[in-house]
């Protein structure tokens, strides 16, 4: 089984695709499922996602297990023999691991059905524009709505065999941020006839940072990062347009609202000061991942005594995950799975430890059997 898991992971690692473009990935999952015993399986597709229900022997509830399936727009630099075959695309967030583990758990229960019904959710577009919220509203309804839902996320900072989890807030509220500035371009020698958007953008970047230091409670946590600025076309012309692209992360929904209000106030003030037009787009927003207390405590008690796993009670992180939308509506939890990579998530050399695959499958199979 271990060799098969590694091969599955490497197959999937070769074909990373962006959100709602996971056509090869969807077909790989469907082909894999078609080779499992079919007596108890029901399969649905939704956009580029896949849902597989396994009928239990005496079901009283539906247990959900969710994995994400999309990759990132990153050029891989691992040098692996099985590295991405798609230019500018990479599974740099561990979704190849996530899918492989889900397929491993599914394989076991397709051959050895549990008492309760199980639902395996292969969700597209976690990295953007976000598939969980829409999938929840359109597919996870009626007989396909779990009574309990679980998921994991690869964690490079912990060694393989580590399960890091906590009750309550695990992942932050997140929002994309795009600000477009439009002024008046012209010759560099005649700045008095222009409205320079490179200068305006520079002012705006520094002013946005004051929101965290002066508007957010120091005992709370929030981050505004501007990761990309574009503006201008040539060194001796004043830029008519500039664009800022970034992200907002907060530990509370109240802080997210406050940050957004301040961004709007500051941006509108800058537009007046520089006599330009400003447009704000928050893009994709993710709700916090908040682990339900009873379900998480039971899982933690199980891991504490599980041979081959080490429990770490971690703190919350400012990472984002759209699984939060599912936990908002359905009891359950997410946990960090240690994968021991020297390079972090979203890095072009992210190299998770494949020994974590079998451990995670065994852990979740054995846990599900206790439910």
Word description of this protein:
The chain is α+β, with helices and mostly antiparallel strands and 371 residues long. It contains nine helices and 17 strands. It has helices spanning 2-13, 23-34, 95-111, 132-138, 197-215, 253-273, 293-304, 323-329, 355-368, and strands at residues 41-46, 49-54, 62-68, 117-123, 148-155, 162-165, 168-171, 173-182, 186-187, 222-231, 237-238, 241-250, 277-281, 285-286, 289-291, 310-313, 332-338. An eight-stranded mixed beta sheet has the order 1-2-4-3-5-17-6-16, with helices on both faces. Strands 8, 10, 12, 13 and 14 form a five-stranded antiparallel beta sheet that branches. The radius of gyration is 23 Å and the shape is elongated. The two termini are 24 Å apart.
Tell me briefly what this model is.
With 371 residues, the protein is α+β, with helices and mostly antiparallel strands. It has helices at 2-13, 23-34, 95-111, 132-138, 197-215, 253-273, 293-304, 323-329, 355-368; strands at residues 41-46, 49-54, 62-68, 117-123, 148-155, 162-165, 168-171, 173-182, 186-187, 222-231, 237-238, 241-250, 277-281, 285-286, 289-291, 310-313, 332-338. It is 33% helix and 26% strand.
